[in-house]
């Protein structure tokens, strides 16, 4: 028993040394793992910040596209002008690329060579992130984080809110404009007794269109919502809809030269930071309007038979005239300029010829 005791006693220092060695190695491995976790966690955080940045920039850029080269340049300017930062707000985004395409599959172009009718925007960034612990494993001093987001103007055919509560007549059964001409003024509320060459908006000074208005009846002047005073204000000023509007559905024309309509229309126009421009061209070139005078309007086919079952054939963009252009008398027409493609939430027209569009992330 004494020999056995001496043997076990002589092993205890070795055991203690082995434990110390294993503990030291384990500590090194643990510290290395913790360090790698710190580096990987930091890269994950920066990846999230970068993805948020490219997604939001792509959405903002896509909303400004309007089918012109100026629209491309505006969209391309968002990334260089951004104040967003990453790595816990310690670094600025500098290595950013903005590209444009007409389809999500490409081909993709820089702003200098992009087709003006591009409605897809891809924003990408590649960031170099300093590594502190993973360098010991990989030998690389920096890790690379890449993020890409694609925004686009996507067709929208149905609205639960945001449709302006007036409906002008189509002049043709053929799209995309249905006989309307961009830059021309059309009737959103008809006078009680329209006369050719008289109290008619310039674009509707055609007997066939006047016949559509007359066929609808003396009290049906173009308003398409409830005629209660409160709802009139809500639908004109606050984009409220009592029913969903979808292309292909019918609209019921109502009317009346209501003072409430005029008051609400004046309030809506004055919501815009540019309430003075006479035409959309002036408004767009001024560049300081906030879009409240740009309204999504359902265009109807005049009814089938004429004056009955007015079907929505398109939802497009119209520009409201300045305050003072709209009179309250029943014999006065209310005119608005036909612009073309409406983009929800944008203060410019869209890329396409006409129709309603919404900005979405598509990739």
N-C termini distance: 78 Å
- Strand ordering within the main sheet: 3-4-5-14-13
**Mean pLDDT across all residues, rounded?**
88
- Care to count the β-strands? 14
Radius of gyration: 32 Å
Order of helices and strands: HHEEEEHEEEHHEEHHEEEEE
Tally the helices. Answer: 7
Estimate the global geometry from the Cα principal axes. elongated
Helix content: 25-40%
Structurally, the number of domains stands at 2
Percent of sequence in beta strands: 15-25%
Uncertain runs: none
The profile of the biggest β sheet is:
5 strands, mixed
Query: Structural class from helices and strands?
Result: alpha+beta
Describe the model:
By secondary structure, the chain is of the alpha+beta class. It folds into two domains: 2-154, no CATH class; 158-358, no CATH class. It is 31% helix and 22% strand. It has seven helices and 14 strands. The protein has helices at residues 2-64, 69-76, 135-138, 207-215, 229-237, 259-270, 280-286, and strands at residues 85-86, 91-92, 96-101, 120-130, 142-155, 158-159, 185-189, 245-246, 250-251, 294-300, 310-320, 334-340, 342-343, 356-361. The strands form four sheets. Strands 3-4-5-14-13 form a five-stranded mixed β-sheet. Strand 1 (85-86) and strand 2 form a beta hairpin. It is elongated and about 110 Å long.
